[in-house]
Amino acid sequence: MADGLRRLVGAESGRVLQEKLESWYRDYEINSCDQNLNRCCEIIELNSEIQGQLFTILNETSREGGHYAGVETIKTRLLPWLGTCFSCATSGRLFETNLSLTQDSIEKERQLRELASDQTFQLQELQEELTSTRLQLSHVQQDLAKTQLALEDTKTKSATTLLAAEDEIVQLKAALKTSCAQEKDALRKLDRLNDYEQQIQILRDEISILDAQKSVLQSRFVRSRSPSPRHSESKSPSPLPLRSCSPGRARRTNASRRACLVARFGDIYAQERLDAETLLRTYVSDMEMVQRIIYIAAVESFHAAKTAYRQFKIRVRETLSLGHSGPESLEDTVLDYIVRHEDLYDVQASVNEVIRSMNINPKISFPPEIDFIVISTLIRELCRVAFSMQTLIPPLDVAFGTDGELFSETKYHRSFDSDFTAALVAYHVWPALMENDVVIVKGEAVTKRGALLSRSRSPSPLRSGSPRR
């Protein structure tokens, strides 16, 4: 008996039966009828095996106890249980259950046959589609083979063209080396020629200086020989320093100087203007006021530089007219002198004049504790460029602009924050550069709809006087 019970315990049949019952309970709702019946039959078979082993153990235990041992237990417990399990009522219910299960099974088999026929029909359709797809694939493969042949042909032609191109590149490289060598030789010759021209120019300048000094000395000598009553009253202005002067140089270099000055004007717009705008934003929060200040500074700088140029030109003409002689006209000589002596231009005086004009301009305002001298760098560069532009033939100037004027596409660009449907200029950001009423460089303006409000500012004690140096 102990061996049979040990084998039953070692087989763990009870645990396996419990696990199968739990698994069946979890999957009962998702299983089909056949699957649930199979599960039930498996559990019944396993249960019958366990019952067979238990009856074997019961038989062995009864024999070990003798003929009469355990009789009462069998009578009171085993026999009543066996009678209850095999009663007639139980047999009737089992028959009805088996009949119901058989009908369900027949219905399931019919549904399975229908599904099988549907799947067969779908399989035939899929096979037909597969056949069609294989035909299309064969056509595509044929097209691919033709394309590969065409590609091979193109590769062959490209290789031939590449070889020809490589030969041409080699020839061009050789020609380029030759050209570079010739260019270097020409540059060396040109440098030597420039040196000769510079030496000749220096000699001519020295001769011009000596002629001018000679003429001045002769005129003084003549005046000293023939005194007049007004000699003590009228004194000639102090002559300007006569340094190297090249008659006709201004006209010869006019085109190159013009290009450089136009480029410099564009650089000021792109760099110095933005630097000044950034600096002003630390004192003025209104962007429109900042742009108005910079525009007025540019216009006033050109006005001050033109005034200073006219005064400087008068002084030079008065000085050079005393001893002028030579093939060049007096105007050309004066212009050449100014071009070569632009460093004599008092740019600081023009900067002061610009700041003075800005202080009394009613369209712009500034905090009382700050002066317009904070943008003196921008003003100084504009004055220098404007002064040099007056030495060109013809001179360059900025366009005149007023608030509320009709916007001109040929003269201005619209700023990014403009109303592109507006026809009138609200205010200007940067002036346009002109040459004889022809626009050379476009300016920038802001266009907006609506009435243009005039701005006024209160006078500031700090700016009532002359600007600080």
Give the helices and strands, then pairings:
Blueprint: H1 2-11, H2 13-27, H3 33-65, H4 71-85, H5 88-225, H6 249-252, H7 254-281, H8 287-320, H9 330-340, H10 347-359, H11 376-389, E1 397-398, E2 412-414, E3 425-430, E4 433-435, E5 438-441, E6 443-447
Parallel strand pairs: 2-6
Antiparallel strand pairs: 1-4, 3-6, 4-5
Helix pairs in contact: 1-3, 2-3, 7-8, 7-11, 8-9, 8-10, 8-11, 10-11
Describe this structure in words.
- The structure is a single chain.
- The chain is mainly alpha-helical and 469 residues long.
- It has helices at residues 2-11, 13-27, 33-65, 71-85, 88-225, 249-252, 254-281, 287-320, 330-340, 347-359, 376-389; strands at 397-398, 412-414, 425-430, 433-435, 438-441, 443-447.
- Helix content is 67%, strand content 5%.
- The strands form 2 sheets. A 3-stranded antiparallel β-sheet has the order 1-4-5, with no helix packed on it. Strands 2-6-3 form a 3-stranded mixed β-sheet.
- The N and C termini lie far apart (125 Å).
Care to give the gist of this entry?
Helix content is 67%, strand content 5%. It is mainly α and 469 residues long. A three-stranded antiparallel β-sheet has the order 1-4-5, with no helix packed on it. Strands 2-6-3 form a three-stranded mixed β-sheet.
Beta content comes to: under 5%
Distance between the termini: 125 Å
Q: Largest sheet, if any?
A: 3 strands, antiparallel
Strand order of the largest sheet: 1-4-5
Number of helices: 11
Stretches where pLDDT is under 50 for at least 5 consecutive residues are 226-247, 454-469
- Helix/strand-derived class? mainly alpha
Question: What is the helix/strand order?
Answer: HHHHHHHHHHHEEEEEE
Radius of gyration: 56 Å
Helix content: 55-70%
Average pLDDT reading:
81
| Number of strand elements | 6
Give the overall shape, derived from the CA principal axes: elongated
